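Posted in: Structural Biology > Protein-Ligand Complexes

Title: Requesting predicted complex, tryptophan in pocket

I'd be grateful if someone could produce the 3D structure tokens for the following input. Sequence and ligand are given below.
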Amino acid sequence: MSMSDRGTWGSRVGFVLAGAGSAVGLGNIWGFPTRVGENGGAAFVLVYLVCVIFICLPIMIAELAIGRRTQSDPVGAYAKLRPGTRWWMAGGLGVAAGFGVLSFYSVVAGWALAYIWFSASGAVSGDAVESATFFTDFTSHAPSSLFFTFVMLAATAGIILGGIRAGIERVSKLLMPVLAILLIVLAWHASTLPGAAEGLAYYLKPDFSKMMSFGALNAALGQAFFSLSLGLGTMLVYGSYLTKREGIAKSAIMVVALDTSLALLAGFVIFPSGFSIPGFDPTSTGPGLIFMVLPRLFATLPGGQFFGAAFFILLALAALTSAISLLEVPVAHFIDSHGWSRKRAVVIVTTATFALAVPSALAMGASSFFSDLPGIGMDFQSLMITVWNDFALPIGGLITAIFVGYVWRIDSALEELLAEQAWFPNPKLWGWMVRYACPLAIFVIIFMNIRSMIV
Ligand code: TRP
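-- Reply #1 --
Done. Output follows.
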């Protein structure tokens, strides 16, 4: 189908802008600092960067190449390149992961939305202990967490349906630079707080005396896929809107660089502010980290209520542009492969996602069952993060690499990548990474992690 039939893109939006709009979101500002905190700081940051550059970048190029060649949704894309085989199931995993990721994503996006109001009104105090209690009280109150989750999902669905997508994309053009500037200002200010040096050391000075667990390696890998919107077909769908004029390699590098810079910047805000709180322990705050630490940072700034509200507005908008790209994968699938109308696809997929979001929204204390699943030893939201981020996305990437490396084959992919003399630095190296290095690394990390969970 042509671009206009599928009706998904504001026509003049460049890929880099759209790709960055998808990639930059909660993954950078909430997910990255949270996982750095949970997994011990600087060594994790280093491993994360290695995963981004050596595993994710080559796979992003592969995903974009499939998308641009086939011009369809993930299921249709594999089916087109290998008709009559079961390869379409690779796309099917992505469609399922789109639901799965969005289900917990919309819960956290709802927190960001609520914090716009909490910051502007001064409801959340600058006192570290009080702001931690405030977060716990808020997230354990079922009606409010369900309400904000619902609003975020409805807004996402509304944008995809309402044809105001081009407008949102224009907003996201402004969003990136403003978000970057605000983060720089906040990082600068955070570095002047007492205890900041300790926070920076935690963030930047790896402690090689401690061996990293396979769980932490797997978390870094999953986080890299999550932050880059990789492994479930978002980039495949977005690649279908790349024109031949925009080189794939250059576009991918720009999206990766932008996304990674914003994640790193977020760490420069969170850790110095966190360590300025006496007795701060980054491993124990969990998903509430940024919501517990930031109110105190804002309270130390002149005009803190304004800065706080502005920050959470930007975060909610960034989450929204990412959520759109998540919902788009299953929606595009039901339109392209099953002939559903756009409206039907959006309504049904969003309703199903909300149903799966409910237990995640209740997992922070509102329901004792979902907050500590019997026999599993974690809450429902953490279970979703483990299943979808840490396993489904890297496995999706692994399958993409194997497909491109051995089935579609490197030569055919390079034909697409090098079309119209596009800039592509080292085709041989890329082929080698996609065939050998990436699949092997992903397999070993996931296999060893699962083994360490069992024994
Ligand atoms: N990358 C986005 C973020 O960091 C989330 C996201 C959007 C995503 N589309 C995705 C994650 C596809 C995985 C796959 O917030």
